[in-house]
Amino acid sequence: MKNILVTGGAGYIGSHAVAELLDSGYSVIVLDNLENGYKELVDKRAKFYLGDVREPETFENVFKENKIDGVMHFAGYIKVGESVLEPGKYYINNTYGVMNVLEMMRKYSVKNIVFSSTAAVYGEVKCEGLVEENYPTNPINPYGASKLMAERVIEDAAKAYGLNYSIFRYFNVGGAHEKHHIGQKGEGVTALIPILLQVAKGERKKLEIYGNDYPTKDGTGIRDYIHVVDLVRAHISALPVLDRNISGIYNLGNGNGFSVLEMLSSAREVTGEPIDAEFTPRRLGDPAAVVASSEKARTILGWEPEYTEVSKIISTAWNWYKAL
User: Fold this and answer.
1) Is there a domain that residue 259 lies in?
2) How far apart are alpha carbons 51 and 56 in whole angstroms?
3) Helix (H, G, I), strand (E, B) or coil at 118
4) Alpha-carbon distances of 265 from 9, 155, 218, rounded to whole Å
5) Can you give the residue range of the structural domain that contains 16?
6) Domain NAD-dependent epimerase/dehydratase: where (predicted)?
7) Cα–Cα distance measured from residue 41 to residue 268, given in angstroms and rounded to the nearest whole number
8) Is the pTM of this model over 0.85?
9) What does DSSP say about strands 222-227 and 257-259: parallel, antiparallel, or unpaired?
10) Is residue 188 included in any domain, yes or no?
């Protein structure tokens, strides 16, 4: 594969994928409607098209004008709370949008897709060990359900049309690129690392820690954090595997769990700021600990994460964020 279409390539993860693909020698075409993306995050070496995956007429010319060897599909809505309030918005974008992309791929004989999914497809994780790909999928919100439905659509299309796919289920993504000036921005971000940095920068008063009575080492929830560059490099490592007609579903995480208090302590050390925090009641459905097994990605894709220290993940994000 030489020419890769990246949908949602102006977003946080998509823009990092674009930069890493270009640095790896691929030609890149970006499709984004700029609703949640930023044109300034798109690497100037890429070819940019304004279009919407919900509207095939806005992006068919991308396929007409370019020889596309594979698609990396990042375009989608990601806010869990919003999905509960506006489920239709999520099913139309996250599921129907995928269907449109697959139909266009079929029409123009594009055989390979890499799909951005989520650990939210698992729902309330109750296992004590690492979460593997065969853990039961039972999403508890429309966001997770819309992504799981999209996974099923991709698998069915693969059987019907002879497509190859790599589906990646992300855990908690953070950090920013150290070579290219790109990172996470946008309104209403709910991830822990951006919230910590907003407090450090004085843009938010304090961090709310949901629950301190979990059966964990310090009573706060434990999660798995993966650096965004490690994440997108896994996507790139899937491309030669797809060339060999090997499809699969892969978890992407660090394999290490960090509690909220550990993240807070690390962020205070990295930023040199006090970062006020207070405990509040648990959120309904939040499990005590969720940590990924990424052994399948390591074995089949030959992928290894580089950023294994959470302080390094936070520091790359802080270097980007404080310069905004």
Assistant:
1) no
2) 8
3) strand
4) 33, 42, 12
5) 3-176+226-253
6) 4-253
7) 28
8) yes
9) antiparallel
10) no
pLDDT, tens digit, 9 for 90 and up, residues 256-305: 899 999 999 999 999 999 999 999 999 877 788 899 999 999 999 999 99
In the block, residue with structure tokens 């691929």: 26
Question: Locate tokens 């930069």: which residue?
Answer: 19
Q: What is the pLDDT of residues 138-163, one digit of tens each?
A: 999 999 999 999 999 999 999 999 99
Q: How many Cα atoms sit within 13 Å of 290 on the Cβ side? A: 23
DSSP state of 282: P
**Residues paired with residue 250 on neighbouring β-strands, in sequence order:** 168
154 backbone φψ class: left, alpha, beta (φ>0; ψ -120 to 50):
alpha
Catalytic-residue membership of 143: yes
Closest CA to 98 of 131, 71, 125, 123: 71
Number of domains in the chain: 1
**Which residue in the list 12, 90, 91, 143 is annotated as catalytic?**
143
Q: What is the CATH number of the domain that holds 95?
A: 3.40.50.720
Instruction: Determine contact, residues 91/82, Cβ cutoff 8 Å.
Output: no
The residues facing 165 across adjacent strands are 113
Q: CB within 8 A of 288, min separation 6: which ones?
A: 214, 215, 216, 221, 222
- 293 within some domain: no
- Examine residue 59 and state whether it is found in any structural domain, yes or no: yes
